[in-house]
Amino acid sequence: MDNVYSLLAFVLLAGMILGSALLVVTLRNLVHSVLWLIVMFVGVAGIFLLLNADFVAAVQVLVYAGAVCIMIVFGVMLVQRPDMQNSNPINWRFKLAAPVVGGLFIVIGLLTAKAQLTASPQEVPEQTVQALAPILLNDFVIPFEVAAVLLTVALTGALLLVKEVKANGNGS
Amino acid sequence: MGTALNPSYFIVLSAALFAIGLYGALSRKNAIAVLISIEIMLTAVNINLVAINKFLTPEAFIGQIFAIFVITVAAAEVGLGLAIIIAMFRSRHTVDLDDFDWMKW
């Protein structure tokens, strides 16, 4: 009975994710695209909860649906001209892109149907944070610190890029 | 092991999401829309990583660690991408990707 419920949850979440992702790439108004992007990220967090990855789901909601979408909204407000109605036009390449991505999806689907995936008999534990912490802070401590340095460098570089350029030369 | 959900469902969902993101990245004119489409593609990769982690190696947790690193790098990439787009908008007053032609000979 539990399997039926998880299958139902998967179908609902997949419909929500794919529908909102299609709206993101087809709507003409860029602000509406960003709002549907938040819906898609929350749906993906639901998929992560269905896969027993509660820490990744929490990070997904905090970082993607919170921080990244707010940052994109600020970028849209800083960049756009007053007319928002047709702010996101499509170019001539969509006629080329549609068969390419359709072919890619069909190829991946056929390969997936052909693959022999043997599921492991073990189950993921209910609490994943206690298992993630020693891996992240013992085995993966160097990439963890490198990620921190990467975020600092990216923040400093973004500040340098958007800093107002003085008309008469040297910075200050 | 339950039989209702198997890994190929999640792989097909991730492939569909990746295809939608690729279509958006190829067919939009606005640079911010292309950045959003790249985020959609990275999210599709994350679904694949976590699903493979659950179904094939549930005791190793490497897939979830990699998903966290992908989320970190994606956040840094969005910050830098928006900064570059704002800097280019200041000099050219456009965000249309077809108008970015500095490198044209």
From TrEMBL, chain A:
Membrane spanning stretches: 6-27, 34-51, 57-80, 92-113, 140-162
Documented EC number(s): 7.1.1.-
Subcellular location: Cell membrane
Predominant cellular place of this UniProt entry's protein: membrane
Coiled-coil segments on the chain, per record: none
Keyword NAD set for record: yes
One Gene Ontology cellular component: plasma membrane
Protein name, per record: NADH-quinone oxidoreductase subunit J
Function, as annotated: NDH-1 shuttles electrons from NADH, via FMN and iron-sulfur (Fe-S) centers, to quinones in the respiratory chain. Couples the redox reaction to proton translocation (for every two electrons transferred, four hydrogen ions are translocated across the cytoplasmic membrane), and thus conserves the redox energy in a proton gradient.
UniProtKB/TrEMBL annotation, chain B:
EC number: 7.1.1.-
Catalytic reaction equation(s): a quinone + NADH + 5 H(+)(in) = a quinol + NAD(+) + 4 H(+)(out)
InterPro entries reported for this sequence: NADH_UbQ_OxRdtase_chain4L/K (IPR001133), NUOK/Mnh_C1-like (IPR039428)
Annotated transmembrane regions: 6-25, 32-52, 64-89
Lipid bilayer topology: Multi-pass membrane protein
Keyword annotations of the record: Cell membrane, Membrane, NAD, Quinone, Translocase, Transmembrane, Transmembrane helix, Transport
Entry keyword NADP: no
Molecular functions per Gene Ontology: NADH dehydrogenase (quinone) (non-electrogenic) activity; quinone binding
GO BP terms in the entry: ATP synthesis coupled electron transport
Domain of life of the source: Bacteria
GO CC, one annotated term: NADH dehydrogenase complex
Family: Belongs to the complex I subunit 4L family.
Function: NDH-1 shuttles electrons from NADH, via FMN and iron-sulfur (Fe-S) centers, to quinones in the respiratory chain. The immediate electron acceptor for the enzyme in this species is believed to be a menaquinone. Couples the redox reaction to proton translocation (for every two electrons transferred, four hydrogen ions are translocated across the cytoplasmic membrane), and thus conserves the redox energy in a proton gradient.
UniProt name for this protein: NADH-quinone oxidoreductase subunit K
